[in-house]
Design a protein that fits this description.
single chain; alpha+beta; Nonspecific Lipid-transfer Protein, Chain A; 2 domains; four-stranded mixed β-sheet; 22% strand; elongated
């Protein structure tokens, strides 16, 4: 693998080959982690935009393939802060698009605190 990595001009391919070499030779170990390992005490320090991106990734695309709906999210405790307090969550064909603006044609509105 090292010989292949030396021959390639693509930095991503070289990084992949060298990383695979390190894994196969036992020089590094990858431990499972991800969002499931995040402690609940960490969430209040995360920006809402990050939480919405996590929500978009965790959307069950199979169950929402035939959906096309807009949900308004209003965070009542964020009204006088720099971050937006109103979001438009558009679920369509298995994709969640979260926009930091008030939803104009929402099917329903969720009004809650940001930490609920």
């Amino acid at each position: 693998m090292i010989a292949l990595a030396e021959e390639t001009f693509n930095a991503q391919e070289r990084n992949y080959l060298l990383s695979e070499h390190l894994l196969e030779t036992g020089q590094v170990k990858i431990t499972p982690g991800g969002f499931g390992a995040i402690d609940d005490h960490f969430v209040p320090f995360m920006p809402i935009s990050d939480l919405l991106r996590i929500m978009a990734v965790r959307l069950n695309a199979t169950k929402s393939l035939d959906k096309d709906m807009i949900v308004a999210l209003s965070l009542t405790d964020m009204k006088n802060r720099a971050e937006p307090s109103d979001y438009s969550l558009h679920i369509r064909t298995g994709i969640l698009e979260a926009l930091p603006k008030e939803a104009e044609t929402a099917e329903f509105t969720v009004a809650t605190d940001s930490l609920v």
